[in-house]
Specification:
With 151 residues, the chain is an all-alpha fold. It has helices at residues 10-17, 19-28, 36-52, 58-66, 68-78, 84-101, 106-124, 130-135; strands at residues 29-30, 33-34. The protein has one domain (3-143). It has a two-stranded antiparallel ribbon with strand order 1-2.
């Protein structure tokens, strides 16, 4: 159990554990299917975050890592096809996380939000080179309303 989650219901805790999964699905899935490079990068990053996150977030990312791939597959299946209706449902689920995070200890909430923002940006850019972003600095339309990035 993550100490900062003690006051949350089990459902709320589960939603927060799935936050990186939901962000990954939103970033890596389109009407054409799942971008395998972004999916692989998300799985790898979930593992790396366990070791590189600020100390107070390490228990969180350890929990995230445990079932990340399984949760990713389930979420990708749940929100398929990745049309506007399903994408909006996914965004609503992500917004629920924002409300839950706002009820956590303020310092922890800020750290978690920043970490999730960086995570999302990394996954979103997995298929793009820095050079390409420099030449074509276009935001991904699917993520512009995401509460984690503020786009």
């Amino acid at each position: 159990m993550i100490p900062q989650f003690e006051k949350l219901t089990l459902h709320e805790q589960e939603l927060l554990i799935k936050a990186p999964v939901l962000l990954s699905v939103l970033a890596s899935c389109s009407e054409r299917g799942i971008n395998q490079k972004q999916k692989a990068d998300a799985i790898k990053l979930a593992h790396i975050k366990t070791f590189t996150a600020v100390p107070e977030l390490q228990p969180y990312f350890k929990e995230v890592e445990i079932n990340f791939k399984e949760y990713f597959e389930k979420a990708a299946e749940q929100y398929y096809p990745f049309d506007d209706v399903h994408r909006n449902l996914l965004k609503m689920e992500i917004k629920k996380n924002q409300k839950i995070i706002s009820r956590l200890n303020p310092a922890y909430a800020v750290a978690l939000n920043k970490s999730l923002e960086r995570y999302e940006i990394h996954v979103k850019r997995a298929t793009y080179s820095v050079f390409r972003d420099f030449i074509f600095p276009l935001a991904m339309p699917d993520l512009k309303d995401n509460p984690y990035t503020g786009f």
